[in-house]
Specification:
With 84 residues, this protein is an alpha+beta fold. The protein has three helices and two strands, in the order H-E-E-H-H. The protein has one domain. It has a two-stranded antiparallel sheet with strand order 1-2.
C-alpha cells in the first residue's frame, strides 16, 4: 500500500512539472508564406531572431523573382558554370 501511495505521489508531482516548460512562439510572413517558430525549453528571443534571420537569408538566395538572387543567377546561366 505504501508503494502505491509513493508511486501516485511521484506521478502527481511529475505531472505538475510538465506544464512549466518554457516556450515562446512567433509568426512572421517570410518565404511567401507564414512561418511559425516555437522554441521549447528557453525564452531566449535572440534564438528566435536568429531563426527568422536565416529564413530571410534563404529567401534572398532562393527568390526566383529577384534577379540578384543566387537561384536567378543560376537560372540565367543556361547550364554554364556560374559562380554565385
Amino acid at each position: 500500500m505504501i508503494r502505491l501511495i509513493t508511486a501516485l505521489a511521484l506521478v502527481v508531482s511529475l505531472c505538475g512539472c510538465a506544464g512549466q516548460t518554457k516556450q515562446i512562439s512567433r509568426t512572421r510572413f517570410l518565404l511567401d508564406t507564414f512561418v511559425e517558430i516555437t522554441l521549447y525549453g528557453s525564452a531566449d528571443e535572440d534564438i528566435l531572431d536568429g531563426a527568422f534571420d536565416l529564413c530571410r537569408q534563404y529567401h534572398k538566395m532562393f527568390d526566383r523573382f529577384d534577379p540578384e538572387s543566387e537561384l536567378a543567377v543560376l537560372n540565367r546561366s543556361d547550364g554554364e558554370r556560374e559562380e554565385v
